[in-house]
Amino acid sequence: MAESRARVLVVDDEENQRRGLTSLIGAWGYEVKQAENGAHALEVLEEWPAQLIVTDMMMPVLDGAGLLTRLKEQPNAPLAIVVTAFGSLEIALNTIHELGAFWFLEKPIDTQALKLLLERALVSRRLGEDKLILERQLGYEGRLAGLVGKTPVMRELFGIVQQVAPTRASVLITGESGTGKEVLARAIHSLSPRAKEPFVALNCAALPESLIESELFGHEKGAFTGALERRAGCFELAHRGTLLLDEIGEMPISTQAKLLRVLEDGKVRRLGARGEMEVDVRIVAATNRKLEDAILKGSFREDLFYRLNVFRLELAPLRERIEDLPLLAETLIHHMNSKHGVKVMGVDEAAMLALKRRSWPGNIRELRNVLERAVILAGEGLIRTSHLPASVNDPAPVSTSDPEAILVRVGITVDDCEKALIFKTLDHTKQNKTRAAELLGISLKTMHNKLKQYGAEGADS
Fold it and tell me: Is the pTM of this model over 0.90?
């Protein structure tokens, strides 16, 4: 049953549907109220702030999309679960991305799925409410179980990790290559009750399709050509511990179906075996791909995504948290000193400035390689610019023939520069406003406002 008297607002213009949902959700222990459309819902919320909303999309006066748009403008707005009989999967996923819904359900409603969604949304909501309290408890050293950073985005991540790690919940880690997804997975494991049990990592992109099932599930002797002896798979090896499925987006679709069954049943069968064995494994998945796009293309199962995406943790690229670079450098140099038996004390001012100027397309992995080279060259004392590679000291200028470049002539206004940058970024993202806003470091709301200002709001998102 849900925690005591969490508030849920049901929004639907069909009276029978609205009353049925209200009765059902109330029976699960929630305090429930009703609204017949989006405008009515906003009135109810003014007097009765709810934690969660279950809303239809097609309604008169103010529909579900209009309601979600209005809610995005409000601080501490309730999380919304969208229920619709009209949308396609693409429309539903766009509702989540663009309008900030927690998730969606198609009619007729699967009541168990709705119950699970409400529970997950409530946990997610309370994580946000507890963020400030957690930040006070974290301290200001900027380190947590191998993770390093003092920027707001890292402090927020630390808070969520401390909440999620002690649970059994599956975690999906996203972020560009080199941002430290495996480090984050190990941090979750080390802060969990499973810390003394095995941590097993499998890179799904590093194995051919013919071998990945054997690596995951194991095999019996003679199960296939070359199977000369019995072999335990990753699930067996990670029993009572944590299994990291790295680059999960590269897993073959046929293997995804078998993985989903193991996750649902908690049982695994070696290739060639007759019987199954129970396994107790906490799953952490990681990807640098956008799995929602893979779902639309048919290369990733929606039900598996749903199972893995209980909690999503996103690692920001290094260029978006460059203020963490000195602390990262200090930590990496300490490790390199131990590894190579040298005594480097840090980075001098000029070299640090050069490091901060770089955009770091390879993220922390690239920084580690650069610093390892510099530590070996320096040997002792401080790392200086002479110890850094030319690519860091003297970044190559942008070519004027580069189609991704923007040329700015003297005399152009700041507004025109901004407009050109926004349109060029939209071209780069194929008119995906959400992605363009991320690249520009602005909110989606600001992006829409800028496009309205330029009279270009009609561009596809």
Answer: no
